[in-house]
User: Which sequence fits this backbone?
C-alpha cells in the first residue's frame, strides 16, 4: 500500500523444531521472495545437532511430505507391522502394511537426525534464519506482530508460533512420565513395532535405525516408577524391561534411560488470533502413545502453508481471514487425534478388571475384524485430510 512501510518480514516463524522448519520449507517452495520469511530458532548445538533422545515414528504421509521437501533423514528404520497387546490379557491385534497397500506403515528416525536434515534443507531454501537466542512474540495487533530477540525487534505481517509450548493451555496431566532408552533384542524381528498396554501406562518398542536388533524404548509409567527406573543400572533396568515386555523378542539388553518426559495433553484454545497462528506442539501436546504428535504437527504446517501460499503473492492484503480459516480447517483432525491418544492410555490404566477385559476383547475383536481395524489404522497412517 503506498505510503505504508513494509514490515521486516511477511511471515516470522518462532521456533525451528520439526514443525517450524517444515513450515518454512513449505512456504519457501511457492513464495516469490523466500527471503521475506524468517525462521527464528535457538542456535544449533555441537556439530549442528540438537541433542534429543526421542525417536520419532512418522507415518507414510509425513515421510512423503518430508521427502518432497528434501528433508527426509539419511537413516531411518521401517515399520511394517504393529503389534498391539495388553499385559496379563489375551487380546492382541496386528496391523500390517500389506493390508493397506502401502510399502510401510511408517518409519522411525532420531529427533536429532530429523532436525539436521531439516536444517540442511532450510539452509538451501532462501529463508532467513535468525538464531541469536530465545525469541518471543512481544505484541500483535490488526496490522501485524513484533518478535523480539537478543534485544532487537522485528516486525512481520504474520507471526507463527512453533516453539513447542501451547501457551498457558490448561493441561490434562496423565500422571505418567515417558522413560526413553535403547535396547538390543536377542531374537529381533525386523520391521515390527510393539505397543503393550500395562496398568502403569503403554510400553512401546520401535525399530531403530542403529540396527535390525536395536529398539527404541518408550516406557510410560507413574512418575515415581520413572524415578526408580532412572536410578537403575543397565542390568537392573534390563530385568525390569524384560518383566514388563515379555519374551516376544527374546532377551532385551537395555542401556540406562537417557531421557524422561512428563506427559500431559495441552490444547491451545485458539489456533489463530488476529495476525498470529500456532502449529505443532505450540498448538497441542499429546500423549506419545501411537506416536502421533509430530505427524499432527506436520499436517498443521502443511495446512497453514496452503492457506498462506496465495497471500504471499499479495502480502499487502489482510491475512487474518486466512489464518481463521486455517484454525477452523484443523479442528476435526486435531480433535480426532487428541481423542485417540487421550483415550488409549487412560482406558488401559483404569485397573478395573471389567474394563481391562473389555479392552482385551476389543483388541482381539480388532484383530478378527479387519473392517474395524481399518479406520484406526488409516487414521494412524495418514491422519484426517483437512
Ligand atoms: C517421549 C515422546 C515421544 C514421542 N514420539 C513421537 C513419535 O513417535 N511420533 C510422533 O509423531 N511424535 C512423537 N512425539 C511428539 C513430537 O516429539 C512432537 O510432536 C514434535 O517434536 C513437535 O515438533 P515442534 O516443532 O512442534 O516442537 P518441538 O520439537 O518442541 O520444537 C520446538 C523448537 O522451538 C525452539 N524454541 C522454543 N522456544 C523458543 C524461543 N523462545 N525462541 C526460539 N526457539 C525456541 C526449541 O528449541 C525447539 O527447537 C513424542 C513426544 C515425546 C515427549
Assistant:
Amino acid at each position: 500500500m503506498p505510503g505504508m512501510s513494509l514490515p521486516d518480514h511477511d511471515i516470522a516463524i518462532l521456533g525451528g523444531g520439526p514443525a517450524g522448519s517444515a513450515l518454512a520449507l513449505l512456504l519457501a517452495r511457492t513464495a516469490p521472495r523466500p527471503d521475506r520469511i524468517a525462521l527464528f530458532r535457538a542456535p544449533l548445538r555441537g556439530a549442528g545437532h540438537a541433542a534429543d533422545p526421542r525417536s520419532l515414528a512418522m507415518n507414510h504421509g509425513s515421510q512423503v511430505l518430508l521427502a518432497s521437501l528434501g528433508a527426509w533423514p539419511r537413516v531411518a528404520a521401517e515399520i511394517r507391522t504393529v503389534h498391539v497387546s495388553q499385559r496379563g490379557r489375551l487380546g492382541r491385534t496386528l496391523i500390517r502394511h500389506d493390508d493397506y497397500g502401502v510399502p510401510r506403515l511408517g518409519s522411525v528416525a532420531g529427533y536429532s537426525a530429523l532436525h539436521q536434515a531439516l536444517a540442511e534443507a532450510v539452509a538451501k531454501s532462501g529463508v532467513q534464519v535468525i538464531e541469536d537466542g530465545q525469541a518471543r512474540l512481544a505484541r500483535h495487533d490488526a496490522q501485524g506482530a513484533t518478535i523480539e530477540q537478543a534485544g532487537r525487534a522485528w516486525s512481520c505481517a504474520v507471526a507463527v508460533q512453533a516453539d513447542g509450548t501451547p501457551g498457558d493451555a490448561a493441561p490434562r496431566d496423565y500422571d505418567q512420565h515417558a522413560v526413553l532408552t535403547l535396547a538390543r533384542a536377542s531374537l529381533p524381528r525386523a520391521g515390527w513395532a510393539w505397543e503393550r498396554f500395562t496398568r502403569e501406562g503403554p510400553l512401546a518398542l520401535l525399530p531403530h535405525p542403529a540396527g535390525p536388533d536395536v529398539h527404541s524404548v518408550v516406557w510410560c509409567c507413574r512418575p515415581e516408577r520413572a524415578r526408580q527406573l532412572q536410578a537403575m543400572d543397565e542390568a537392573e533396568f534390563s530385568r525390569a524391561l524384560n518383566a514388563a515386555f515379555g519374551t516376544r523378542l527374546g532377551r532385551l539388553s537395555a542401556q540406562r534411560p537417557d531421557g524422561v518426559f512428563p506427559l500431559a495433553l495441552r490444547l491451545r484454545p485458539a489456533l489463530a488470533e488476529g495476525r498470529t497462528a500456532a502449529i505443532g506442539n505450540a498448538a497441542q501436546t499429546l500423549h506419545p502413545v501411537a506416536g502421533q504428535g509430530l505427524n499432527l504437527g506436520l499436517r498443521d504446517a502443511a495446512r497453514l502453508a496452503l492457506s498462506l501460499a496465495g497471500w504471499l503473492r499479495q502480502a499487502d492484503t489482510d491475512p487474518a481471514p486466512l489464518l481463521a480459516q486455517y484454525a477452523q480447517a484443523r479442528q476435526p483432525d486435531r480433535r480426532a487425534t487428541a481423542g485417540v491418544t487421550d483415550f488409549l492410555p487412560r482406558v488401559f490404566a483404569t485397573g478395573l478388571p471389567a474394563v481391562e477385559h473389555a479392552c482385551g476383547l476389543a483388541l482381539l475383536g480388532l484383530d478378527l475384524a479387519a473392517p474395524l481395524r481399518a479406520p484406526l489404522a488409516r487414521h494412524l497412517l495418514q491422519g484426517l485430510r483437512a
Notes: The pocket of flavin-adenine dinucleotide is lined by residues 14-20, 40-42, 54, 56-58, 134-136, 162-164, 178, 180, 218, 261, 280-282, 288, 291-295, 297 (CB under 6 Å).
